[in-house]
Specification:
4 copies of one chain form a homotetramer. The first copy, chain A, is α/β, with parallel strands linked by helices. Helices cover 34% and strands 20% of the residues of chain A. In chain A, strands 4, 5, 8, 9, 10, 11, 12, 13, 15 and 16 form a 10-stranded mixed beta sheet that branches. The longest helix of chain A has 22 residues.
Chain lengths: 402, 402, 402, 402
């Protein structure tokens, strides 16, 4: 088999998606998600100008070799743009492999370790009471796990809250919005939210919370400690994580499980975190972490330390990534949970999907390959429009983590 | 002061260079080097599509805030494409600061800590004898330090050797060349080369060698130990470096000084290496490491551990980066050495420069700002042409570090 | 540019201040604060007898080289007298740099990272109720952060309390006063004070407390733990700090943020504290820590560990240090908070200032250099008069930390 | 007993000495050495302006309390100026104690642990051959231990070498001399010197060498390793030592014994070094390390780790310090060796001494107290004249450790 063509499709049904399509001499093609929210065009150029010319003529069966060809062969290794491009290539090659063997990808990854994939929903409250109610809505829908975020009194922009009552979408058209945050008020308030949730729904529901990198290590340690009585499923991205040792402080002070890594890009970002047992869940998504080939290795490594997967799965990634994640999560033994936000309907005008939600779990069909497709014709109707993630500032104006 | 315009200039006088030009409402403009060898177009898109729109209207005086705006504000942090884009912005802003205050940039970085900047030259031999002779040529030119690479008998492609007798340029037009390497033969041979060099030139000349990431930790430890009698100034990139702890093994077995980091992108890549005292020199160049603002912080950090700068300075970076490096190296106390490869003459048709070589040192004029300029008219005569760094394989075909 | 003259001005408008004035051949002069409360004359002699003769003829632009000239060149390195002298030199040179380039110093340090500088006020109560009331007074004035100290029943001299109802000034004329303290009563009482404060003012106000070195590590750990429910902004100088590892015990037992270092003098005092993540805020002031040049390096180092600045800023330092601190705190990203005690009016007869307080923040004008000046004529009206900080004893008479 | 008077005597018989004289109401007085080479006047002011007023009226018997009064009571703790002042006070109080009890000080420190004190002499060669010869001269004089320094071919100023053939005195009149050094040439050459020494004098003589802070940790590790075959008694100040962890690297690579600390000022500088077993000898002299009271504690601590004393004893300290050191070294069990440089004859016009050299050891009389005296009349004939230690630069001009 030979790769004869590859092209990048950028479309914007509601939000921007970048998709790599690799075509072979056997007529089989594969899709890979190359979306890097707010930096889409850098990945497009990376693929079109530097990777696609090299892909042509390669044998798509050699996923291991091709992965290293683009990882080591780039010389300037790693980072979000590079690893998203590599992930898209890798995902598309797995799609091709599945299709060429006429099996769903999960069957190439070890088969089913479970029947369906536990996901968590989102409840974003504009007040404590609203947060409790929104969580209730998700629970009623059948979700077994809900990530709860809440507006903080006196704080302009707590993470995850849409102030106009619409569903939360962090990226906004054009230039970045500035969002202002106060860690102190947040730390005081959040434990009350989870006290309220536990009072309302008892201990059976799995509750998650995302700090979104905004705490310093000692602040995160305090929060993890203060949240202990409410037994979170996990506390996510408690610190920004560039300094891996920053997580030691959290671990020293609490037994709240920790998830991190939605902005990490390689397994090397996790070596310290895993071997020192500083985390419990890996957030790095397939689409930003080099694809199935690389995450398979990281999950293998993590399995020796009983660290599980808990992939990022917001709508900033396309159905291609979601399908790939579902194959992965079905097969790997040390799966934990998968984030899930339903795409807007318009997304499914462009992407046809093979998964469905029921009873708080996602299920996937046995269609060959990844099982999703992209209608290029329809994609053209939704052209790229610049959109940016917000920029965060502290109350005194300091540029901080959003 | 306000930024009114910014544009990216891609030109290829002999090789590809990407330059960011930021223009202000006061007529002053600044230049930043945005060249990422073999991945140029990804940085161009990153800047043009995602950064420049945000730059317009900013006050260029606020370099600290702007740095964090693009670093933290990108959300997906770090990596070569991102950090090269940020470096170019930062460098251009320092150029503007210098010009607007009418002083050379080094005067804004603490003034002169020395009068001139020690550099090292390159000697790449096709045989042991040729390596010794080539080193002699550089010594005769007045260089006090020479990096020596040598073809290894029985090995197709030792790093750094041009087989056609011309000056060594790793990138080739079009797609990557494949280069084949054997670590075993290399490890046996290299100590002989340095024995030969010491026999020929005694102990006064500073000798450097670049492993170029090709060894495993234990191989690197062996090489560092075997080279001890020849007292290298440094051994460079002995391992690939994604696993920071990999350097512990080298350090445990030898006192050969270690330089690393030409493919690193942030100071966070160095925290373990510096605090555990695993390295002696920082190779991360301004142009790939977030610019002057970030390297100033890393050099400050390193100074507490007597770790010095030894920036990458091959011709894959433009005269803009070289000038910025010279200002930096003139000012910072814990400077060690700077790599230097002269650009081809055609480069200076496009870029006018403010530095000159004599007696193995570079000197820089007192022109305001960085002191280099780019002739956009002439740049247009040398359009971009795709070029790629090689891809490395071991003798059995394994994709390895080039 | 050349330094043609330098002189030390000692004056005592209400309290002793030592100011270094460095004059250049271009008529520009710079001021540096050289005040070391209770040891003023040692710094005067250090500067006059040993540094000033060497300064004459130097180029004031070379701040990095001059810093090391006095730091390494002294041979006997570090300590409060030496580092205060070096700080004064460095501060004056930055003042000169700013004036010669006609910009405020913060524009040389990276521009504005924020518009104004958050400060904390002081409330020193003679009783629990008085402490709560005094804090209320500061909150009403608009302060967002208040350090609260309180007399302890049965203890002669809790730190920070003026028993005569006047504003607190630790130094007294002539020889040191002896102050008697009991750690046990203090540990029992202080959590009640903060319970009272939180009951009165809720969670929004930032509360700080200064242990002033008086606890042993295990006592400090108990206090930090007992104060957790009241969520201090920081607990300051919980132990005396000569033994850096002493802070491990505190960190092991609590998530109360820790600030330390107002009696430290170099960044080397912080390497263990920062890399082991034992502290959250750096208290070392510019005037005692080698000036802007050295603190810029330490802040850079600290930034990799999310440790922030929280400089000492009592009235024992002159307006020159305060102005320099404001420039620094405006520019550095990892600024946390600045201590602020207003100088008596008589101080401003001698020193003209460029900063003002509003809404719990300090703002600074865009005057070139540091922006403060000293009227030497008026300074002469307030001659030096020996004053000393107290000496602390435990109840059994043991000489202890004051 | 009460202190009725105290004064500082500065004299310069050949070189500057600062002596503190404390007088009691019983007519007994004590002497303390307060000399801080090149920073004398700062200590004078520290004592005269800030300490002496407080000393008057104190009971000199309470050495422990008085020590803490000045150490903790200064608030701004430690550093060379402060600790030299405290050392002088402490030494003078021990002199008074001895005199008032009519016993030599060593009898108050535990009596004799040995009969005489092993010292090491200095041999400073202008060439390898000269170094060997100079060492031979000292051996012939009966010295059992010799520190050997040697000029390095191609290096302007190796440490410890007088180029005019006179005895070595580092301080020069007036401003600091600049001395230029090259670490690379030094590292290549020094092992040859010790090879030559061992070849000439066999293994019985104890050989020492002083790196004088000029190496980075990895350079020091190399030197310590390269010197292993020559079995040094110690390698001194291999690194500058502000970063204590810097010594780990040396220890990892060699079994050459290490001495450090002639520029340290408190026992806290040694906690890491001792508990991690990074050193073998303590160089901090009584006169700069807080006196007998503090060094007694440090020696006690060190004894638990089999670390010994090896005090700095160059002629920059007066006979008062030398006498105090001899009492100390006679009494303490974990004594190692003492540095000894004979003072010029003119010194003994001012200071009368109680010690004498024979057979490579110093012996001390049983005169009460320290046993040395100062003739104030004669001291006046030798007024203070500013003198400075050199400032070191690397060959490229970088300000470095002298």
């Amino acid at each position: 088999m030979k790769i004869t063509e590859a092209r990048v499709i950028v479309c914007s049904p509601g939000r921007n998606f970048v998709t790599l399509k690799i075509v072979t001499d056997q007529g089989i093609y594969g899709l890979g998600d190359a979306t890097l929210n707010g930096r889409e065009k850098a990945v497009v150029a990376y693929l079109e100008e530097h990777c696609i010319p090299a892909l042509i003529g390669m044998n798509p069966e050699n996923t291991e070799d091709i992965w290293h060809y683009f990882y080591r062969g780039a010389y300037w290794k790693g980072g979000p743009v590079t690893m998203t491009a590599i992930a898209a290539i890798d995902m598309a090659l797995w799609d091709i492999r599945g299709k060429s063997l006429n099996v769903p990808v999960y069957k190439l990854l070890g088969g089913k370790s479970r029947d369906r994939v536990l996901v968590y929903a989102h409840a974003n409250g504009v007040s404590l009471q609203d947060a409790v109610e929104k969580a209730g809505v998700e629970i009623k829908k059948g979700f077994k796990a809900v990530r709860v975020q809440c507006a903080v009194p006196g704080v302009s922009h707590a993470y995850g809250i849409a102030r106009d009552g619409r569903s939360y979408e962090p990226a906004s058209k054009g230039l970045p919005e500035t969002q202002v945050f106060d860690t102190g008020k947040y730390l005081d308030f959040i434990p009350e939210v989870f006290a309220g949730l536990r009072a309302a729904y008892g201990t059976d529901i799995n509750l998650l919370h995302d700090v979104h990198h905004r705490c310093t290590p000692i602040e995160a340690a305090r929060l993890a400690k203060d949240l202990e009585p409410f037994h979170l499923f996990w506390l996510e991205d408690p610190v920004s994580g560039e300094l891996k040792e920053g997580l030691r402080l959290i671990r020293k002070h609490s037994v709240t499980p920790i998830a991190i890594g939605e902005v990490f890009n390689t397994g090397f970002d996790f070596t310290t975190l895993i071997t020192e047992q500083l985390i419990d869940y890996i957030r790095m998504p397939l689409a930003h972490g080099g694809g199935i080939t690389h995450l398979q290795k990281l999950a293998a490594f993590a399995s020796f330390y009983q660290v599980r997967t808990g992939f990022h799965g917001a709508t900033d990634l396309s159905p291609v990534n979601l399908a790939a994640s579902l194959h992965f999560c079905l097969a790997v033994n040390n799966f934990g949970i998968l984030e899930y936000m339903p795409h807007q309907d318009v997304v499914h005008e462009v992407f046809s999907i093979n998964y469905s939600l029921s009873d708080g779990h996602l299920q996937i069909s046995d269609a060959p390959g990844l099982g999703v497709d992209l209608d290029e014709e329809r994609a053209r109707k939704y052209p790229y429009a610049m959109a940016s993630l917000p920029v965060g500032r502290r109350e005194d104006g300091t540029l901080w983590y959003w």
